[in-house]
Amino acid sequence: MTPDEYVEAVLELVDRIPAGRVMSYGAVADALTERSGRSSARLVGAIMSRHGGGVPWHRVVNAAGGMPPGLVAEARARWLAEGTPLRQDRVDMRAASWWPTEGM
Question: Where is each Methylated-DNA-[protein]-cysteine S-methyltransferase DNA binding domain found (predicted)?
């Protein structure tokens, strides 16, 4: 898989995350490892930072269920609108985590 194909695969997967559910950066990387040969949460984060504006970016969080400080307020508003389970200013990862079961 080329770097451009990996970017597309990340964005396609993020676009599939249902409303009210989330994946961590690491989970996105793990879900694509077999197809891509890559497994880097940091790379997924970089892709989301550069290219994620057209997908539901707020559905990809860090492993603790949080967002970078500058995105917390907007992400929280989106999480509340979608009914995402929260614990204060973070997503409740136990209740909200999603994993793709097919097509990977």
Answer: 8-70
Local structure of residue 22 (DSSP, 8 states): B
Q: Does residue 14 form part of some domain?
A: yes
Q: Which long-range contacts (CB under 8 A, 24 or more apart) does 54-57 make?
A: 54/11, 55/11, 55/14, 55/15, 56/14, 56/15, 56/17, 56/19, 57/14
Q: Read off the pLDDT of residues 55-96 as tens digits, 9 standing for 90 and up.
A: 999 999 999 999 988 999 999 999 999 999 999 889 999 999
Q: CATH number of the domain that 27 lies in?
A: 1.10.10.10
Task: Give the tens place of pLDDT for each residue, 20-38.
Answer: 999 999 999 999 998 888 8
